[in-house]
Write a structure and sequence with these properties.
The complex is a heterodimer of chains A (75) and B (506). Chain A has helices at residues 2-11, 31-45, 62-74. Chain A is an all-alpha fold and 75 residues long. Chain A has a single domain, classed as ACP-like (Non-ribosomal Peptide Synthetase Peptidyl Carrier Protein, Chain A), CATH 1.10.1200.10. In chain A, helix 1 (2-11) packs antiparallel against helix 2. Chain B has 506 residues and is of the alpha/beta class. In chain B, strand 3, helix 3 (65-76) and strand 4 (80-84) form a beta-alpha-beta unit. Helix content of chain B is 33%, strand content 26%. In chain B, the strands form 7 sheets. Chain B has a 5-stranded mixed β-sheet with strand order 11-12-13-14-15. In chain B, strands 16, 17, 19, 20 and 21 form a 5-stranded antiparallel β-sheet that branches. In chain B, helix 1 (7-16) crosses helix 9 (206-215), helix 2 crosses helix 3 (65-76) and helix 8 (172-186) packs across helix 9. The chains are: A mainly alpha (75), B alpha/beta (506). Chains A and B meet through helix 2 of A and helix 10, helix 11, helix 12 and helix 16 of B.
Chain lengths: 75, 506
């Protein structure tokens, strides 16, 4: 989770990722952020997020993104 | 009769396919050509009745079919539309209002509250009311009789290096010329179904909005959020049977780089036009493989020449590192490559001559005089050319290839940005001594360096109120001292190198 938070902080360091659950709904993350995030997660955590997992529900909060990463990692 | 008003497109089409849907969005809002026609004539009549004419009208609405009808309504009223957007920061809207001094703004029920909070003291009209009043045929006819084809129809704002956005004014004549030539190159027809990506406050949306009324085609407004979720986006294209897209390159590469084309093929696409940025070859080739039956066309052009000025059909594979040419000018557009001494050259600044050159910047004579200049090759009579600041060369086939910028203008996520505009906004902070914005191409990121008392986080926060999101630096770095060149100027080269080398750590 720490590594993910670091990646996210790198995108926007003024967001409170511990509490925010509207990263997509409130347009905090944009398409550029998603592309960067997917590349960084692949790079730093060696987890590849497939296109079918790129849906709003998986990206609205840091914990949702982390749950996705863990699920993909265990597959 | 020769066409001299863009609305003649709509008037011809509404007779042929009145009940066909012209514009629709993902939330089920749709308007037929008849509905667009009726609403826009009602709006035009209302503007005239209220005493407006030959002046800018700010359109502050959600991105809906009704917003398009309001654009046309403004033109029916003999005025010109200036779209703004709720995502624009308030400071930028204020600057636009200051430049235009508009007397009237049109909102919808969703935006009217926000409009009332702006520093605007003119009339606010609401779409839901003024679109249903009915038309005043006599008055509309009178406006039409009096109109000439060099009258403006819209203003769109583009980044200005001094910190103030510049409002590009375009007229009927240049838009008609552009739409005719673009349609021929991209082979639009009545069966064309556009998927619109561009915001309405850019000239890029002309490519969909006007051919739709010219041919009786259809435009589907693609929800902004889908551009984050590539598979859903491709599914949407298929669900709506979209066959033609004219998108910024970053929207296309988002789909291919995230692997969506491997899961789902956009099966109706037959025309894929792209522009505003260099297409990374690896991603381009992925697209060609995924949609082999489609035509791929690279477009190039500045807002100041109405839309696009050059085109190139990319009908072969390209090698990594190769650049897709910007090709040749549209008909009735002339491109001059001028070197430092204003002589014709094989490599030089792209200068544009012809009907598509717009009227200039609104209420900014100095800025206009800098870029819209007398053709230096012609000493005999007035001939305006637009100097783009883009450098291009001619390849062995005589095609134009983009080389670089003359200045500090960049393209980021398809948006044209003057780094100077970012710096000018940072410099308004009294606690900042020196600042410099650089662009890191490899990461497609804007990085800001500064010296002064201001905290990095505070600066980032305050910039959000001044600049549109796409202009915000991805990284803000405070320095103890600003590196200077021997001449005492900020050493941009060194900072660019620093930014390219940094992995993100402070």
């Amino acid at each position: 989770m720490e590594e993910l938070l670091e990646i996210l902080k790198d995108l926007h360091d003024d967001v409170d990722y511990e509490t925010c659950t509207t990263l997509i709904d409130d347009r905090i993350l944009d398409s550029f952020d998603i592309v960067t995030l997917v590349a960084e997660v692949d790079d730093k955590l060696d987890v590849q997020i497939p296109p079918e997992e790129l849906i709003p529900e998986n990206f609205n909060s840091a914990s949702a993104i982390w749950a996705l990463i863990e699920r993909l990692d265990n597959d | 009769m020769q066409q001299r008003n863009v609305l003649q497109y709509l008037e011809a089409t509404v007779k042929e396919v009145p009940d066909k849907v012209a514009y629709e969005d993902a939330d089920g809002r749709a308007m037929t050509f008849r509905e667009v026609f009726d609403a826009s004539r009602s709006i035009g009549s209302c503007l005239a009745r209220e005493g407006f004419g030959h002046e800018p009208v700010i359109i502050f609405m959600e991105k809906t079919p009704m917003c398009v009808a309001t654009f046309f309504g403004t033109v029916y009223g003999g005025c010109f539309y200036v779209p703004i957007d709720e995502e624009m920061p308030a400071m930028r809207i204020d600057l636009i209002i200051k430049t235009l001094q508009p007397r009237v703004m049109i909102c919808d029920e969703k935006t009217v509250k926000k409009a009332q909070e702006l520093d605007f003291h003119g009339r606010i009209l609401v779409y839901e009311e003024i679109s249903a009043l009915g038309e005043d045929t006599g008055r509309l006819d009178e406006i039409r009789r009096e109109q000439i084809d060099t009258d403006p129809i819209y203003i769109v704002f583009t980044s200005g290096s001094t910190g103030v956005p510049k409002g590009v004014v375009a007229c009927h004549r240049s838009v008609i010329d552009y739409i005719e030539n673009l349609s021929e190159v991209l082979r639009f027809d009545r069966d064309t179904r556009f998927g619109n990506q561009s915001p309405f406050y850019f000239d890029a949306c002309l490519k969909e909005l006007y051919p739709t009324i010219k041919f009786g085609a259809s435009t589907v407004i693609v929800p902004r959020q889908l551009f984050m979720f590539p598979l859903k986006l491709v599914e949407f294209l298929n669900e709506k049977k979209i066959n033609t897209i004219c998108w910024v390159v970053s929207a296309l590469t988002m789909i291919s780089s995230l692997g969506a084309l491997k899961k789902e093929t956009p099966k109706y696409l037959k025309t894929i036009a792209f522009g505003s940025e260099v297409f990374p070859i690896k991603q381009f080739n992925r697209w060609r493989q995924a949609v082999p039956g489609a035509r791929f066309v690279n477009l190039y052009g500045p807002t100041e020449a109405t839309g696009m000025s050059c085109w190139y059909e990319a009908d072969r594979d390209f090698e990594e590192g190769e650049a897709i040419p910007i090709g040749r000018p549209f008909e009735n557009t002339r491109i001059l490559l001028l070197d430092d001494e204003d002589k014709l050259a094989d490599e030089g600044e792209i200068c544009i001559a012809g009907t598509p050159v717009t009227l200039g910047y609104f209420n900014a004579p100095d800025k206009t005089a800098e870029a819209f200049v007398q053709n230096p090759l012609n000493r005999n009579y007035p001939e305006t050319i637009y100097r783009t600041g883009d450098i291009a060369r001619r390849n062995e086939n005589g095609e134009l290839v983009f080389v670089s910028r003359k200045d500090y203008q960049i393209k980021h996520m398809g948006h044209r940005i003057e780094l100077g505009e970012i710096e000018a906004n940072v410099a308004t902070d009294d606690l900042i001594s020196l600042c410099c914005a650089v662009y890191v191409r490899e990461k497609d990121r804007i990085q800001l360096y500064y010296t002064g008392e201001r905290d990095e986080k505070e600066l980032g926060e305050s910039l959000k109120e001044h600049l549109p999101r796409y202009m915000l630096p991805g990284r803000i770095v405070k320095l103890d001292t600003m590196p200077l060149t021997p001449n005492g100027k900020i050493d941009r080269k060194l900072l660019s190198g620093m930014a390219a080398g940094s992995k993100g750590e402070r």
